[in-house]
Amino acid sequence: MFGADKGTTTEDRLNGKKLSIGIVQARFNASVTDALAAACKAELLALGVSDKDIDHVTVPGALEVPVALQAMAEKGKYDALVALGCIIRGETYHFELVANESGSAVTRLALDYQLPIANAILTTEDMPQAIARQDEKGRDAARVAVEMANLLESI
After folding, report:
1. Separation between Cα atoms, residue 52 and residue 26, nearest integer Å
2. Which residue in 110, 139, 142, 104 sits closest to 123, CA to CA?
3. From the candidates 94, 96, 125, 153, which is the catalytic residue?
4. Which distant-in-sequence residues (6+ apart) come within 8 Å of 31 by Cβ?
5. Per-residue pLDDT tens for 60-119?
6. Distance between CA atoms of 125 and 145, rounded to whole angstroms?
7. Cα–Cα distances in angstroms (integers) from residue 50 to residues 1, 59, 149, in the given order
8. Are the beta carbons of 140 and 14 closer than 8 angstroms?
9. How far apart are CA 140 and CA 106, in angstroms?
């Protein structure tokens, strides 16, 4: 939820110094997804992830994000992945299809590969809602990726 109380985490779980992170960005609604990617990458760097340990690829849209995530997961070199996209409700059922299918595929990949995937594929009613969320959700995705990578390493 936008602006929700997200609780706190210990600082050791937000240490990205030894992590390798893959980012998959949908280009559809590029003004929003470019901002998501910029905020995500800036936060990863702030958390100590080295620029050389961040791989960033783009795909046409949200439905293509899981295929690229799967290819990255299969390489076995990433500690966590990030899914970035923006789906804005239109006048047809297409919104539900893209939102539901991309979301369930991202979750399925995370479970199948036991690999944290921060899902920041925005699903909004309109462009102003997307713009209002782009920076915060990009930063959140970076923090989730780093925290979950460190958590899974410690379990």
Report:
1. 21
2. 104
3. 94
4. none
5. 999 999 999 999 999 999 999 999 999 999 888 788 999 999 999 999 999 999 999 999
6. 26
7. 29, 23, 15
8. no
9. 17
Range list of H helices, 21-93: 30-46, 65-75
Region 49-53: mean pLDDT is 98
Return d(Cα 131, Cα 113) in angstroms, integer. Answer: 32
Report the candidate in 135, 108, 109, 101 with the shortest Cα–Cα distance to residue 120: 135
Average pLDDT of the chain to the nearest whole number: 94
| Catalytic residue check, 94 | yes
Directed axis angle between helix 30-46 and helix 127-154, to 10°?
A: 30
